[in-house]
Write a structure and sequence with these properties.
Elements lengths: L1 H11 L11 H10 L29 E3 L2 E5 L3 E11 L8 E10 L5 E9 L8 E3 L7
Antiparallel strand pairs: 1-2, 2-3, 3-4, 4-5, 5-6
């Protein structure tokens, strides 16, 4: 009877996921290779045919933290937080679920949205996939 109670309690308790920490090079790669034309945000008007990566559009350098980075300009605040690193669509390629906070400092625009990105683009650019993901 004791064993059955222990087994039931273990099976009914939620499994705690191992906390994932990204390396600085992984975060830098996301900043360097994130194609901003593949997801909706206030960054889209800054893109051009020659400038599609987050790194290329002339924003201040990011400040990195444990699982993400933030970019602060005079008018905008952007925070990219990786909330999961997993092969979400089961194609054999590691994906990142990112919580994007996109906030105007001078107006009322304030958007927080989860996006799923994957290195499937040309030269391993990170592109947003059309998958619904939880987060934020």
């Amino acid at each position: 009877m004791k064993h059955m109670i222990i087994a039931l309690s273990l099976l009914s308790s939620p499994m705690i996921a191992k906390e994932q920490t990204l390396s600085p090079s992984e975060l830098e790669n996301i900043y360097d290779k994130l194609n901003i034309s593949t997801f909706r945000s206030s960054l889209m008007p800054m893109r051009s045919k020659e400038k599609t990566y987050l790194k290329q559009i002339g924003l201040p350098s990011p400040t990195y933290f444990k699982n993400g980075f933030s970019i602060e300009s005079n008018d905008w605040s952007y925070t990219f937080t990786v909330i999961e690193k997993k092969d979400k669509n089961r194609d054999g390629v590691m994906d990142y679920t990112i919580c994007l906070s996109d906030k105007s400092k001078t107006g009322t625009y304030n958007s927080i949205s989860p996006i799923l990105i994957s290195p499937l683009g040309v030269d391993n650019q990170l592109i947003a996939l059309s998958f619904t993901v939880d987060g934020c």
